[in-house]
Amino acid sequence: MKTFKAAPLIFLLIYTSIGWPTHSVCKNSHLEIYYISCDPLQDFAFTLDSCSGLTTGSVNIRAATVLRHSIRELFVTVNLFFNGKSIPIFSRQLCEQNHPNLSFCGKKKGEHVYYEGPVSFRSYDIPHGDFNVTVELFNGDQHTIVCTNFTILSR
Ligand SMILES: *[C@@H]1O[C@H](CO)[C@@H](O)[C@H](O)[C@H]1NC(C)=O
Ligand SMILES: *[C@@H]1O[C@H](CO)[C@@H](O)[C@H](O)[C@H]1NC(C)=O
Ligand SMILES: *[C@@H]1O[C@H](CO)[C@@H](O)[C@H](O)[C@H]1NC(C)=O
């Protein structure tokens, strides 16, 4: 993984021997979601108002992190892991240099980012089963801003 190559060995050692805790996102009778930061250098705070919003196409989220790199440009990719294969399911640019469309676009290294608000997406029925989904945010220099592995248990 490219992010691992750039990470100083010492952090890699600490990370692999301790790792980040697993956080619970939401749970109802049909859905359980957990995540763990896959950025070896920092954890990530994330909450969802409820699991059920995921099937209606709009959820309120809260997410917070401290930036280790500036985000004049910010991209997000979402990959689904299935049968040991990584399948890209979503990819888009969130911040453009000349159009800071979101409140946190343009923030610099060391600054805190806090986002609270709705995220809407094409609604779909989450199929039954267990899935792992990795969400990665990176800037224009390919530096990881946030990396999280979600585990989704759908019944
Ligand atoms: C995140 O998921 C990827 C793909 O399944 C895996 O290679 C990696 O080890 C996971 N990282 C953590 C911290 O769970
Ligand atoms: C940002 O806003 C500009 C102007 O409204 C628009 O053209 C562009 O598509 C938007 N970019 C993103 C990433 O939403
Ligand atoms: C998802 O990740 C967890 C923890 O890394 C692993 O135990 C599980 O086998 C993975 N499940 C799938 C469907 O890839």
Keywords:
binds 2-acetamido-2-deoxy-beta-D-glucopyranose, LY86, 2 helices, six-stranded antiparallel β-sheet, Immunoglobulin-like, three-stranded antiparallel β-sheet, mainly beta, globular
Describe what this molecule looks like in 3D.
This is Lymphocyte antigen 86 isoform X1. Residues 1-19 form the signal peptide. With 155 residues, the chain is mainly β. The chain has one domain (23-154): Immunoglobulin-like. The protein has two helices and nine strands. The strands form two sheets. It has a six-stranded antiparallel sheet with strand order 1-2-9-8-5-6, with no helix packed on it. Strands 3-4-7 form a three-stranded antiparallel sheet, with no helix packed on it. A hairpin with a 2-residue loop joins β5 (74-82) and β6. The longest helix has 10 residues, at 9-18. The chain is globular, with a radius of gyration of 16 Å. Residues 1-13 have low confidence and may be disordered. The protein binds 2-acetamido-2-deoxy-beta-D-glucopyranose (3 copies). One 2-acetamido-2-deoxy-beta-D-glucopyranose is lined by residues 36, 38, 81, 132, 134, 149.
CATH class category name: Mainly Beta
Counted up, domains total 1
Q: Main beta sheet: strand number and arrangement?
A: 6 strands, antiparallel
Beta percentage is: over 45%
What integer is the average pLDDT?
A: 85
User: What percent of residues adopt helix (DSSP H or I)?
Assistant: under 10%
CATH topology (level 3) name = Immunoglobulin-like
Computed structural class: mainly beta
N-to-C SSE series? HHEEEEEEEEE
Form type: globular
Strand tally, please?
9
What is the straight-line distance between the termini?
32 Å
Radius of gyration: 16 Å
Helices, by number, come to 2
Could you give the order of strands across the largest sheet?
Answer: 1-2-9-8-5-6
